[in-house]
Amino acid sequence: MMIDPARHPGGVTRRTALRTLAVSALATPIVLSPLAAAAPAPLWHPDPAKDGTKAFEGVEADRGHQHPDRRYVYVEGDHYRFDIWADDRDTTGGGDRQRTEVKGMVQNGSALKMRDGEKWTISYEMFVPSTLHGTSKFTHIFQTKTPSTNGGPWVTLDLTRDGGRELIQARAYANPGSPSFASAALDPLRDKWITVEWTLTPGDKGAAACVIRDGTGPDAPVAARGGRTGVKMPGQGDYVRPKWGIYRSVKSAKSDILDTHLLFRDFQASRG
Questions:
Q1: CA-to-CA distance for 145 and 153, rounded, in angstroms?
Q2: What are the pLDDT digits (tens) for 52-107?
Q3: Mean pLDDT (the chain, rounded)
């Protein structure tokens, strides 16, 4: 509202009008939503340009040093890029799989550790290109494991194939049957930034929930949402560590194992 520099149209001076507005503002209670009031500050929120791959406990790619000329995990603008080639092979599995991953969460030089019974929230934005396919064998683009025992994967985000239909699925991978608890068609979520939000409580009978949003920001539509209790995700006397990237079997159809990549940005994690 415009106020005349000399006098308000109603005969009230500008100073009086501003004083009235200020008093009214002070008298009006500010109500915070329960979520806004209770949301803990992120313990982990790396800046790719500043932190680089030091935001993670380590990088796992080309561990057999077969392709020293290739870049696998690196910063590209405001995000992390993970590259993988069809002829890559990991040192595990007898040559039947490939891996370009990062592991863990590091803030100010210290690893953040998810212990049994703790509730953690992890979110990030992700870009899945059309060259990264759902497969008939495993393709994990997120997994949780226990470092000291190499236990797991416990909870995963997978790109799967059901005939001609490709899916993105949050799964209790270590539970019998590796059940999915949040699932969406993959194709509508490709070639754009989407958001993944996890709530994880490690334990022998832990809990996991996942929300996948078709876009970015809190108002982006939900493509998949679900949760499950009784999830096997034990720290086994150590801690549960998240991993991101592409970890897949090459036993799927060759048409699904292409040179490809995966992008991540805006990682955040909080406890409680």
A1: 5
A2: 999 999 999 999 999 999 999 999 999 999 999 999 999 999 999 999 999 999 99
A3: 89
* Amino acid symbol at 192: K
pLDDT at 4: 38
- The pLDDT score that the predictor gives to residue 39 is 61
Tokens for 59, please give them: 């990088």
CA 209 to CA 171: how far, in whole Å?
10
Q: Is 244 exposed, middle or buried (0-12, 13-18, 19+ CB in 10 A)?
A: buried
Phi then psi for residue 120, to 5 deg, are -120, 145
Strands 120-127 and 193-201: antiparallel
Closest CA relative to residue 249, chosen from 73, 99, 58: 99
What residue spans of the chain are helical by DSSP H?
A: 14-27, 34-38, 48-51
Characterize 258-269 residue by residue with b for buried, 16 or more Cβ atoms within 10 angstroms of its Cβ, and e for exposed.
eebbbbbbbbbb
Tell me how far apart the alpha carbons of residues 244 and 198 are, in angstroms, rounded to a whole number.
13
What is the third-level CATH fold of 35-271? Jelly Rolls (2.60.120)
Q: How far apart are CA 256 and CA 272, in angstroms?
A: 39
Half-sphere exposure of 12 (CA within 13 A, CB side): 10
SS3 26: helix
- Give the whole-angstrom CA distance, residue 28 versus residue 52: 45
